[in-house]
């Protein structure tokens, strides 16, 4: 079942599910994800993904901070600031703890060299926010937030009992992360209504959908990097 993260996400998700190659499906059902689910993902692949993902989250926290800058009202600012807190102080704790257990320090994580797929994704999102307005930024950020929420919930329900990746699954299916998805989804609906009225009828609908779909494709590339090795 698709989680309810608001009607804007539902609309964009549908838009990324209708094209022949269905980027949303490729993202949320990627072989990397299925490897987390059934436990077949090699641990070395998981670790090198986590190292890249730590750096990814540093840049995503920067992009959500840009959301504070581009907010028009305090409620938007609050959600963006709380999301930065969630990324930096909670989600990244998974990466730090898992990597520390195999001797990878936080310093090593912070200074890791970015893989091209990582660089492309994070800088695309940052550029969407710098070049565009709050909604351009949110359309590029939404697949990251909600996609992992959707994946986390599905894997929580479907994971093999002996998968070694339960910490990862619990992080993204847990109340804290799910709360962020729901709150961001609600804020997004209000932000769209405030700026565009009805999303469907807006002349910006296609451009925003294109941003969401491209960010989804960049998520697919990120999983691919994880499987291949950075
Ligand atoms: C690449 C990627 N996309 C999304 C998430 C979830 N915040 C993440 N940690 N990494």
TrEMBL record:
Listed GO MF terms: thiaminase activity
NCBIfam families assigned: salvage_TenA (TIGR04306)
Catalytic activity, as annotated: 4-amino-5-aminomethyl-2-methylpyrimidine + H2O = 4-amino-5-hydroxymethyl-2-methylpyrimidine + NH4(+); thiamine + H2O = 5-(2-hydroxyethyl)-4-methylthiazole + 4-amino-5-hydroxymethyl-2-methylpyrimidine + H(+)
Protein's job: Catalyzes an amino-pyrimidine hydrolysis reaction at the C5' of the pyrimidine moiety of thiamine compounds, a reaction that is part of a thiamine salvage pathway.
GO BP term (any one): thiamine diphosphate biosynthetic process
Statement: the UniProt record of this protein carries the keyword Protease: no
Pathway: Cofactor biosynthesis; thiamine diphosphate biosynthesis
PANTHER family registered for this protein in UniProt: BIFUNCTIONAL TH2 PROTEIN, SI:CH1073-67J19.1-RELATED
UniProt entry tagged with the keyword Hydrolase: yes
Native species: Thalassobacter stenotrophicus
Family in the record: Belongs to the TenA family.
Name assigned to this protein: Aminopyrimidine aminohydrolase
Keywords annotated in UniProt: Hydrolase, Thiamine biosynthesis
One cellular component term from this protein's GO annotations in UniProt: cytosol
Domain Thiaminase-2/PQQC: 24-228
């Amino acid at each position: 079942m698709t989680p309810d993260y608001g009607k804007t996400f539902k609309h964009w998700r549908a838009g990324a599910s209708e094209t022949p190659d269905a980027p949303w499906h490729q993202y949320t059902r990627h072989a990397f994800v299925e490897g987390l689910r059934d436990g077949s993902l090699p641990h070395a692949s998981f670790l090198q993904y986590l190292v890249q993902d730590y750096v990814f989250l540093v840049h995503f926290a920067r992009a959500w901070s840009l959301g504070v800058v581009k907010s028009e009202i305090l409620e938007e600012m609050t959600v963006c600031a709380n999301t930065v807190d969630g990324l930096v102080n909670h989600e990244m704790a998974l990466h730090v703890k898992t990597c520390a257990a195999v001797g990878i320090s936080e310093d090593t994580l912070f200074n890791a060299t970015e893989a091209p797929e990582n660089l492309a994704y994070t800088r695309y999102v940052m550029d969407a926010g710098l070049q565009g307005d709050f909604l351009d930024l949110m359309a590029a950020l939404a697949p990251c937030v909600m996609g992992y929420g959707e994946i986390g919930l599905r894997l929580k329900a479907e994971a093999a009992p002996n998968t070694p990746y339960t910490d990862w699954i619990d992080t993204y299916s847990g109340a804290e992360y799910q709360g962020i998805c729901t709150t961001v989804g609600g804020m997004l609906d209000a932000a769209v209504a405030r700026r565009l009225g009805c999303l469907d009828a807006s002349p910006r609908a296609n451009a925003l959908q294109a941003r969401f779909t491209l960010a989804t494709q960049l998520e697919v590339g990120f999983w691919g990097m994880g499987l291949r090795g950075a």
